[in-house]
Structure to design on (334 residues):
């Protein structure tokens, strides 16, 4: 399989009153076509910033400082009398007008909180009609409505509810609407940012199952952002572990769960409850993630790592091939 997305040496910073916080620190990774990449790590580690960088919607005061985000454009994008031809394209070099055409059509994003992402003054139908006709002006309102009904129907939302407003839906139903909007233009890449946040476990399972079915139906490539490793065990082909903006480990899902290499990956997995082992003693990671405005020398994880050496405190580890076949940034393997 070929790579649909390749990220190289990406740096994203937030300028704050306390200083510059590097939220994404020279991250490089590839996403193969028709696979699901999971981004995992603690809250504040840079997962969402990395995801939003792909569509160039990093919230203010964030800024993409350098790097490449190469996406394999599937079809010609026309804007302002110009065009982006199909093929690998560095999204960071595209003008904003081209990115507006690409968002939704080829790369879609499901945001964390559907209640703040949906317009409370618009019905569900209006949301769909607007996004479909904005990208395909030749589509009539009737055609757009039919497409919306088909998509929502596949997500378990009855057509008669299309005239309802966001506040009339439960959290799980609103999230289904957001998923439907993400699929409305049949994108090649779908980025799901904590798609089940604040949902109970039953609804969470339903939403994730529906996403998996739609991925197969539409031949989607996905990036699934979550702190829940149990979710990734079921739905991801590969997992990237992120800590303090840096890539700590990348491996296929089976390998990561059976033989994690980085001490941070090991600690995250030890903290996951296992219903098959009710007597398992849950572990926790002592301390807290570092202040990104005051980056530490060496490995960012070393103050919390039980295996840290003096080298870890002074020298930043580089990514290298791990014994299990993935890649890992740890001096234990270099």
């Amino acid at each position: 399989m070929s790579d649909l997305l390749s990220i190289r040496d990406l740096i994203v910073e937030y300028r704050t009153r306390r200083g510059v916080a590097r939220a994404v620190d020279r991250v490089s990774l590839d996403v193969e076509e028709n696979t699901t990449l999971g981004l995992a790590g603690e809250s504040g580690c840079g997962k969402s910033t990395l995801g939003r960088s792909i569509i160039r919607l990093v919230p203010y005061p964030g800024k993409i400082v350098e790097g490449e985000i190469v996406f394999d454009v599937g079809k010609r994008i026309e804007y302002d009398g110009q065009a982006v031809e199909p093929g690998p394209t560095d999204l960071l070099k595209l003008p904003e007008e081209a990115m507006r055409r690409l968002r939704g059509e080829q790369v879609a994003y499901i945001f964390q909180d559907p209640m703040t992402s949906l317009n409370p003054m618009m019905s569900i139908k209006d949301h769909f009609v607007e996004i479909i006709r904005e990208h395909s002006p030749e589509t009539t309102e009737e055609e757009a409505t039919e497409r919306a009904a088909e998509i929502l129907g596949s997500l378990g939302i009855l057509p008669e509810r299309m005239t309802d407003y966001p506040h009339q839906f439960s959290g799980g139903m609103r999230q289904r609407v957001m998923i439907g909007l993400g699929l409305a233009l049949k994108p090649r890449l779908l980025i799901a940012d904590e798609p089940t946040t604040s949902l109970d476990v039953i609804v969470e399972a339903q939403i994730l199952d529906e996403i998996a079915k739609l991925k197969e139906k539409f031949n989607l490539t996905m990036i699934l952002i979550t702190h829940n490793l149990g979710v990734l065990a079921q739905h991801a082909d590969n997992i990237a572990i992120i800590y303090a903006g840096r890539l700590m480990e990348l491996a296929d899902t089976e390998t990561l769960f059976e033989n994690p290499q980085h001490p941070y990956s090991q600690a995250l997995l030890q903290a996951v409850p296992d219903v098959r082992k009710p007597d398992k003693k849950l572990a926790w990671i002592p301390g807290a993630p570092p202040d990104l405005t005051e980056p530490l020398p060496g490995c960012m994880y070393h103050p919390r790592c039980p295996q840290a050496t003096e080298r870890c405190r002074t020298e930043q580890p580089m990514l290298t091939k791990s014994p299990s076949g993935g890649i890992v940034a740890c001096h234990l393997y270099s």
